[in-house]
Amino acid sequence: MTDTKSKHDQTYTISQIADALDISTRTIRFYEEKGLILPKRTAGNQRIYTPRNMARLKLILRGKRFGFSLEEISEMIGMAAANLNEVEQIEKSLKFGDTKLKEIKERKKELELLEQDILATRQKLIKRITQLNREQ
Q1: The total number of structural domains that make up the chain
Q2: Considering the entire predicted model, what is its pTM?
Q3: Going by C-beta distance under 8 Å and a sequence separation of 6 or more, which residues neighbour residue 20?
């Protein structure tokens, strides 16, 4: 990163991006292969990343942390349909978020039922082992 450039003109190498976001350069290249980020190239074909690329990578990583697929992330950040405006992009993100929240609530219910089943089985096993120990 060069301090003499304005924020708009700042560029980063793949290593600087990887270090800043604590990810591997391979991960960055993978997201590029998937079309999620589009870095510029020097005449020598070296990748040059902009603050916009950095912001997109942060969104991708956040989306992965929230459990979204790369296809969903692509749609949310506007890569799948280049003609999406910001309102449409936000609406699409909200839709995906609502779907993910519904999945989480369903999974929580399943986990609560599983917990109840395990606790009930545990109680039965404790009762049985207590009976067996008394009989000895």
Answers
A1: 1
A2: 0.65
A3: 12, 54
**Which contacts of 68-71 are long-range, i.e. CB under 8 A and separated by 24 or more positions?**
68/96, 68/100, 70/31, 70/34, 70/36
With respect to residue 132, please indicate whether it lies within any of the assigned structural domains.
no
What 8-state DSSP symbol labels residue 39?
Answer: -
Residue 31 domain-assigned?
A: yes
pLDDT digits (tens, 9 = 90+) for 90-123: 888 888 889 999 999 999 999 999 999 999 999 9
Residue 38 lies in a domain: yes
Given a contact cutoff of 8 angstroms between Cβ atoms, the answer to whether 31 and 58 are in contact is no
Assign residue 62 the CATH number of its domain. Answer: 1.10.1660.10
Q: What is the pLDDT of residues 78-91, one digit of tens each?
A: 764 555 577 887 88
Q: Which residue has the higher pLDDT, 82 or 74?
A: 74
The answer as to whether 97 is a domain residue is no
Alpha carbon distance 16, 37 (integer Å): 16
Q: Which residues are CB-neighbours of 75 under 8 A, at least 6 positions away? A: 81, 92, 96
Domain hosting residue 62, numbered range: 1-68
Reference 56, options 90, 32, 40; nearest CA is: 32
